Amino acid sequence: MTISVPRKAFVARSEADEAFLQGVCRIADEVAAKHVGDVDMHARFPKESIDALKDVKALSAFVPMALDGGGVSFAAIAEACFELGKRCGATAMIFAMHQIQVVTLVRHAAKQPFFEEHLRRVAAEQRLIASVTSEVGTGGDMGSSVAALTPAEGGHTFTKQAPTVSYGAYADDLLTTLRRDPKAKGGDQVAVLSRADQHRLDPQGTWDPFGMRGTCSPGYIVSATVPAEQVVEQPFAAIAPQSMVPVSHILWSHLWLGIATDAFDRSRAFVRAAAKRTPGMTPPAATKLSHVMGDLQLLRGEVKAGLADYLEHFDDPAWLMTMGAALRFNNLKIATSDQVSKICQRAMGVSGIVGFKNDTPFAVGRHLRDSMSACLMIANDRIHSTNAGLLLIAKEV
Amino acid sequence: MSASTTHDQIRDILSEHARMPADASTLSDGDDLYDSGMTSHASVQVMLALEEAFDVEFPDSMLTRSVFGSIASISAALEQLGRAAAA
Predict the structure, then answer these.
(1) Chain A to chain B, count of Cβ pairs less than 8 Å apart?
(2) ipTM of this complex prediction, to 2 decimal places
(3) Residue A237: closest C-alpha in chain B
(4) First vs last C-alpha separation in chain A
(5) Average pLDDT over residues A264-288
(6) Are strands A129-132 and A173-179 parallel, antiparallel or unpaired?
(7) Quick one: which H or E segment has residue A113?
(8) CA B62 to CA A362: how far, in whole Å?
(9) Which of A54, A51, A50, A70 is nearest to A62 (CA)?
(10) CATH number for the domain including B75?
């Protein structure tokens, strides 16, 4: 197995970024890669790699140093998703989804005393945060809720039917989207944090999926009672376009790039082994590999461009709230999720039966299965339908 | 064109395109259209209809919830684009 080294920096890295990425690369290679087969086979939580990430305080990497966090840049968080994605898609997805919640809280809630203190707790206790955004009855629209925050003794209570909550049973905290109050319209949402000692998860069904099996994402009925201070004051309608949506699509696309890169690396290793057996001639599979590399380069280009566009406008909420910005990051998601499964499939075509078998060093079956989840996570058809509406009126696209 | 007829025209467009449960003619100028049930999908249709009726093009910087949040804010945006004032 090749040992990862952080690639040449795409944007300038701080010392904190370098140290963080060295730690993540080591965990990817030494821990995530070691357990990925078992995690995938048994559809179990990748406890070893998440524990190792906690050991190096990676869960609070994006929390500012003033709040006891790592003070790592957003670009380094994205790079970490890529590195983990190369070794274990489920570990990378759990890490990415946790960071989406952290970035959201740091950017939109850190000025509230409760959340300032809570981010310190995330750093001290390496608390893992999951999200409850999807809901039965909304047709997959994250910008709309059925369940409402309801005044109750001791604060607010809620009950939400979630068709999927990734690693919910392993999370210390949940960030749940809800209607602001029982009279609010579906789109008038807030995000609410609940700790494991405040919420209850009643499992709905089992978890035996095609890919991304280690994310452990069955459905739950989530219920909780929380004090009012645990409601993020900024409306979710502002948080989603400024942070949650673009950050999701950027971090996901980075880990998908990681999955595709490892599939390519494995098929390349296969071709090199074949070439060594037949000196003097280039194996036919090498030409197929060249096609896969072209696809990988396209994917890499879009992933980097999406990150660059976000970094350029990181502190520009007005731009992030425009339709042009929504279209830009929607298209990042559609393009990269389509491309990752295409690359994994074509990588399997390079190595043939050897890549198809699960028990060879060139196996890419898990990569292909994991990659197939990409187009379902916020279904691409739904995003196309949103884009179609925006394109009628947006000018600068 | 007086402000009141601009507001009436906006109300007509809302009646036709905003798909709100409430009758647009009963809305006051400051009422929040999204709170009144206009979805983001319907708001795109409203924007298109306003562009057609007033012969303007809203720049992207104006295509926000706050600009299309009430009859008064839509009217202000149209005025800013010069159309209402010139008429």
Answers:
(1) 39
(2) 0.77
(3) B65
(4) 43
(5) 94
(6) parallel
(7) helix A113-125
(8) 53
(9) A70
(10) 1.10.1200.10
Q: What is the pTM of this model?
A: 0.92
* Count of domains for chain B: 1
State both tokens at B33: 């259209």
Tell me the nearest-neighbour CA distance from B4 into chain A, angstroms: 26
pLDDT, chain A, mean: 95
CA A86 to chain centre: 14
- From chain B, the residues in CB contact with A237 under 8 A are 65
Question: Confidence band (pLDDT; 50, 70, 90) for A8?
Answer: low
What is the C-alpha to C-alpha distance for residues A325 and A332, in angstroms, rounded to an integer? Answer: 11
Classify residue A278 as exposed, middle or buried by CB count within 10 Å of its CB (0-12, 13-18, 19+).
exposed
3-state secondary structure (DSSP) of residue A194? strand
> Å from B6 to nearest chain A CA?
21
pLDDT digits (tens, 9 = 90+) for A21-61: 999 999 999 999 999 999 999 999 999 999 999 999 999 99
User: B35 and chain A: CB distance < 8 Å anywhere?
Assistant: yes
Rounded distance between C-alpha atoms, residue A249 and residue A81, angstroms: 12
| pLDDT at residue A7 greater than cutoff 80 | no
| B52/A contact by beta carbon, under 8 A | no
Chain B residues in contact with A388 by the CB 8 A cut-off are none
Do the chains contact at B64 and A321, CB–CB below 8 Å?
yes
Q: What is the pLDDT of residues A156-193, one digit of tens each?
A: 999 999 999 999 999 999 999 999 999 998 888 999 99
- Calculate ∠ Cα A307-A50-A7, nearest 5°: 40
Candidate from A143, A237, A322 with C-beta closest to B63: A322
- Rounded distance between C-alpha atoms, residue B4 and residue A331, angstroms: 41
Tally DSSP H helices, then E strands, for chain B.
4, 0
Q: Give the domains, in start order, of chain A with CATH numbers.
A: 15-127 (1.10.540.10), 130-230 (2.40.110.10), 236-391 (1.20.140.10)
Q: What angle separates helix A33-42 from helix A89-108, to the nearest 10 degrees? A: 100
Tokens 């060295």 label which residue? A22
Q: How far apart are CA A395 and CA B51, in angstroms?
A: 12
